[in-house]
Amino acid sequence: MTSARHPHLSHPRYRPDIDGLRALAIIPVVIFHAFPTLAPGGFTGVDIFFVISGYLISTIIFENHRKGRFSFVEFYVRRIKRIFPTLLIVLLFCNALGWFVLMADEYKQLGKHIAAGAGFVSNFALWSESGYFDNAAETKPLLHLWSLGIEEQFYIVWPLLVWLLWKSWLRTFSLIVGVIVLSFYFNMRWVVDDDGMAFYMPFSRFWELSCGSLLAWISVNKTLGNNVVVHKSAAAFVSWMGNGWQNTKHKLSDIFSVTGLFTLVCGFVLVDRDVPYPGAWAMIPVLGAVLIILAGADAIFNRAILSSRVFVWFGLISYPLYLWHWPLLSFSRIIEEDTPNVMIRLACVALSIMFAYVTYIFVEKPIRRDIRSVAKATVLALLMAVVGWLGYVVYENDGYESRIDDPVGVAKIFAHPQPNLIQSDCDKYFPDLRSSHFERGECTVVGDSKPTVAFFGDSHAQHYAAVMPDYLAGHAVLKIIGTSCLPFASGNYKEEGACLQKYNDLIAFLKRDHGINTIILSAYWSKAIPGKVGVKGVNWRHAGEFGPDEVGNFIKNGEKFLNAALLGGRKVILMKDVPDLDFDIHECFAIRPFTITDRRNVGGKCSMSYSAYARRIAPYDEVLDSLLKRFPSVQVFDPVPLFCKNGGCIAAENGLPLYFNGDHLNSIGARKVMDAFSDEVLAPLFH
Predict the structure, then answer these.
(1) Mean pLDDT across the stretch 391-415?
(2) Residue 5 placed within a domain
(3) pLDDT higher than threshold 70 for residue 181
(4) What is the rounded distance in angstroms from the CA atom of residue 548 to the CA atom of residue 541?
(5) How many CB atoms lie within 10 A of CB 209?
(6) Where does the Acyltransferase domain start and stop, copy by copy (predicted)?
C-alpha cells in the first residue's frame, strides 16, 4: 500500500478557482442561515462542497495510486490535520458557551451533539431526533456538522474501495458510476418515503461526492500510458472529456464555466426549504459545480472571478467559516428566544468571519505545515476523543441542572416534562398483538392486571398517558400511542413508518373481544385532518390548507374506527385538543443564565388571544364535530375552557409552565386537564 521509494503522497496542482468555488459555496450558506429570504436556496452550497471534496480527495487517491505511492496512514494523517484542529476549537467553544447560556435540556442535547460531532456521526444523531419532541433546527448549535459526518464517512469507505479495484482501470470507472447510480437511487426513493433519511444518510449523498470523483478520474486518466489497457471506446471517452475540450475547445470551457455559474445561481434562487430535498433538486448545485470544475482554471469565469483575491480569500477560510458561523447564529437565536434582530445577525456573521480568519492563520496553517507528522495527528485524534467524552459526560449528567438559579424548579420542569411510567409490553395480556406493526414502547400496559380500559392516540395522548394511571381508580390501562398516526387521520399514511398498518392493526384489534369496555381517544386533531406528513426531514403532521379529499378521508377513517370501537357496547370518550400556542413557552420565564437583549415576555400574562386561536382552530373543529354528530353515543370532553377564559388562553399558572413546547403539555398541564376529566368523566364511570 505504500511504496518504499515514494513514501509521501503528492497533491494535485493548485487551482485557485477551486478555492473561489469554495467561496461561492460558503457565502450563500452563511447568507441563508443569517438572512434566509435573501438566498432561499443558499443551503445548496453544501452540495457544492460535496462535489469539491469528492474531486480533490479522489484526485489525491488516483494520482498516488498511479504512481505507486498511496499510503493509508499518510492519507488519514493529512485528513486529521486538515479537519480536526478547527473542529476541536469549535466543539470546545460550544461546550463552554453552552455551560453559561443553555437550559439543562438544551445543554444535554448539545452534549450529545458534541459527542456525535467528535465521532463524525452527527448525521445519524440528527436523523434519529426527527420527530414531535425534537428541538427546532435553529436551536441546535452543531446542526451543521451533519455534512462533515457524511464527508468523513466517505473518506473512510472510498479509499478502501479504490484500493481494492485500482489495478483495473475500467473497474475503477465502473465503481464510480455504480456508486453514483445506486446512491442517487436511494436519494430519489427516500426523499419520497422518508426525506429525513434522504437528507442525512450517507447512502443518499455519496452520489454527490462521487460526481467529484468522476471528474478526478477524467482528469487523472486524460493522458493514458501505454501500459494501461482499456477498451477503445473508454479511451476515446477519456480523451474527449480530458484532452479534447481542454486543449482545443476553449470556447466550450467558457460555456461550461458560465453555464455552471448560471446553474448554481438558479439553485440559490429557485430551491427553497419547502421542496423535497435533496431529491432531483440536488442535481442543480451538483451539475453547476461539475461544470465549473470541468471547465478548468483558464475558463473565463474561473479565471476572472473565482481566481480573484477576494474569492480565493473566502475560499481559504471556507472550512473554519462553515464551522463558526452556525454556532454563533444558533446561540444568538437560543439566547434571544426568537430570531435575533438584524444587527445581532450581522454581528454574528462578522464575528464568524473574524474567528475563521484567526483560526486559519494561527491554527490551521501552522499545524498543516508539517504534513508528515504522525505524532501530531495522533495527539489531535486523542484530543478529539477527549472532547467527545466531555460531551457525553454533559449528556449523561442531564445538562447539569444545578448550574441554573431556579428556586421554583421551572428549568427542571422543562428538562423533565413528563414522569416515567412503569409499564409492560401489551402482548403480555394481548398475545394477538405480537404480530402487529406497533413498535416497542408504542403498545404497553400500565397496571398489574388485564386492562379493561384502553387509551389510543398520538403524542397528544401521550402527555395524558403519563399521569392517567393516577386517575383510573386502580384500573389497568392498555395504551397504544402511534405518534402522528393514531387513532385516525385523513388517510395520508405514507410517512411515519407503517402508519396504515398500525391503523389497520388497531381496527382489527377492536373487532375482537378482549374484555376492553372503555376506550379513550386523544389526538392532535387539527393536524390529523389535513393529513400532511413529513416536511424537510421532520416527520410530523402539520396544519395547512385542506380540501374535500382530506375532509372526506378523515370522516371515512373516523367512521370506520368509531364503528369498530363501539362494538359490544363499549364506552368511547373522545378528548378534544388543548390550545396550541402561537408563542414560545420559554419566553415567559426569566431562567436563562444569559441574555443579549430584553425581549422576552417575562412577568407577562404568558397567554395568547382566544379569538385568534378560535379563528385558527374553527375549520378543524367543524370537521371533527361533523364526524361526532354521527356518533351521539361518543362522549366528548373539551379541555379548552380550562385554558381559555376572559379573552385569553394561558400557558402558565401559579408561576409554572403548563406546556413544554408549543402544543404538548407537561405533567402539570396534564394533571390540570385530568383533574377535570376525572370529575366529569371518570368518576361517574368507575364509581
Answers:
(1) 82
(2) no
(3) yes
(4) 18
(5) 29
(6) 17-360
What is d(CA 132, CA 141) in angstroms, rounded to the nearest whole number? 19
671 is a domain residue? yes
Tens digit of each residue's pLDDT (9 = 90 or more) over 567-580: 999 999 999 999 98
* Residue 395 and residue 418 share a domain: no
Q: 348 and 452 in one domain?
A: no
Structure confidence by residue, pLDDT tens digits, 227-277 = 343 444 445 555 555 554 445 557 788 999 999 999 999 999 999 988 889
| Rounded Cα gap, residues 382 and 389, in angstroms | 11
User: In terms of domains, do 372 and 480 share one?
Assistant: no
Instruction: Tell me how far apart the alpha carbons of residues 33 and 26 are, in angstroms, rounded to a whole number.
Output: 11
| 345/494 same-domain check | no
Is 185 part of any domain? no
Assign residue 439 the CATH number of its domain. 3.40.50.1110
State the residue range of the domain holding 574: 414-686
CA separation for the pair 128, 194 (Å, rounded): 12
- Location of C-alpha cell 445543554: 107
> b/e per residue, 108-136, with b = 16+ CB within 10 A?
bbbbbbbbbbbbbbbbbbbbebbebebee
Do 676 and 619 have their domain in common?
A: yes
Q: What is the 3-state secondary structure (H, E, C) of 582-630?
A: CCCHHHHCCCCCCCCCCCCCCCCCCEEEHHHHHHHHHHHHHHHHHHHCC
Same domain, 392 and 441: no
Contact 156, 121 (CB under 8 A): no
**Residue at which a domain ends, from 376, 403, 430:** 403
Domain for residue 321, yes or no?
Answer: yes
Cell of 532: 400532511
Total domains in the fold of the chain: 2
Domain finish residue from 349, 372, 403: 403
Alpha-carbon Rg for the chain in angstroms: 29
Asked if 421 and 365 sit in the same domain, the reply is no
Residue 681, H or E segment:
none
Please, what is the end-to-end C-alpha distance for the chain in angstroms?
79
Residue 373, number of CB atoms within 10 A of its CB: 15
Query: Residues 511-522: pLDDT tens digits?
Result: 988 889 999 999
User: How large is the average pLDDT for residues 461-485?
Assistant: 82
**Sign of torsion over alpha carbons 522, 526, 530, 536:** negative
| Structural contact between residues 51 and 24, judged by C-beta atoms closer than 8 angstroms | no
What confidence tens digit (pLDDT) does each residue in 539-557 have?
Answer: 334 444 455 567 787 888 8
Cα–Cα dist 216/541, whole Å = 43
Burial class (CB in 10 A: 0-12, 13-18, 19+), 81: buried
d(CA 107, CA 112): 9
Task: Give the mean pLDDT of 11-34.
Answer: 94
Residues 398 and 470 in one domain: no
